[in-house]
Amino acid sequence: MEDRALGSQGLTVAAQGLGCMGMSAFYGTTDETESLATIDRALELGVTLLDTAESYGPFRNEQLLGKALAGRRDAAVVATKTGVEISDDGRALGLNGRPEYVRRALDRSLRHLATDHVDLYYLHRIDPGVPIEETIGALSELVAAGKVRHIGVCEASARTIRRAHAVHPLTAVQTEYSLFERGIEHDGVLDTLRELGIGLVAYSPLGRGFLSGAITSPDDLAQDDWRRTDPRFQGESFDRNLDVVREVRRIASAKGVTPSQLALAWVQYQGAIAIPGTKRRRYLEENIAATEVALSAAELAAIEAVAPHGVVTGDRYAPEFMGTLNG
């Protein structure tokens, strides 16, 4: 894969990254052996950006990544996150952007990752009770101390991004972006990133797997798969969204690629670094092949016709989580 500059602060990554969350949490049964093999294969195929967070597991995903990178830390650009407070015994305690927690969480993440630095450290969610300037100030101190190389924020509004960037230059903003979720094109976030030279990292670029075409019924999901609570996978919303997926599949079939590859290629054409999550080598290889997919103007227009902004039915998250977005 070709390398790309992520933002304008000197960080370079491969054109597609790997989201590691599902290897440890949220998406049904996990298999450490296959997960480690998937990370091995990703590095072998040129993936560099590996994305995790202290809240994934909790902690287990960072520990998995530390194990995978033992003896080859420099082969990867490690991104992890703080700001969703986790007690040392693994209990989620809500949002916490206070400087003292950020510092403590980073030291804990370094232990779990078995490394002395994080390449990209994100504020996972914006804590409304702490001025963003205070949190970013703490992240800036971690950069000065050499424990963090670059910083970013997740799911932030354009205004918050500007305030954060004024304190310390942001390398990246991570947010949901896909054919199913194009809100940043219309709320000022994408324009702000381009203006300020901040990179865009797109999580859930396959609409949490919906755009892969592999899910044809909610019953395809494991009983402990959190997507069973996702409004877009519920009832009438599921049926309407499946109709969109069928149209995406039609365009992909005519081109001779999979729906996943078409959807990922579209995200790449928007200038984002996609981090599709997978815990299996076969899906990883399918996803990476999307970096070789070229889209013509006619194909981009056809995609736009079937998946314009607002085409998806249902909120992004269940109601109890919607309030954490776009702080």
TrEMBL record:
CDD domains: AKR_AKR13A_13D. GO terms for molecular function: oxidoreductase activity. The keyword Acetylation does not apply. Keywords: Oxidoreductase. It holds the Pfam family Aldo_ket_red. It comes from the Bacteria. SUPFAM superfamilies: NAD(P)-linked oxidoreductase. Signal peptide: none annotated. Coiled coil: none annotated. Residues 18-306 form the NADP-dependent oxidoreductase domain. Transmembrane segments: none annotated. One of its GO terms (cellular component) is cytoplasm. The keyword Oxidoreductase applies. This is Aldo/keto reductase. It comes from Streptomyces broussonetiae.
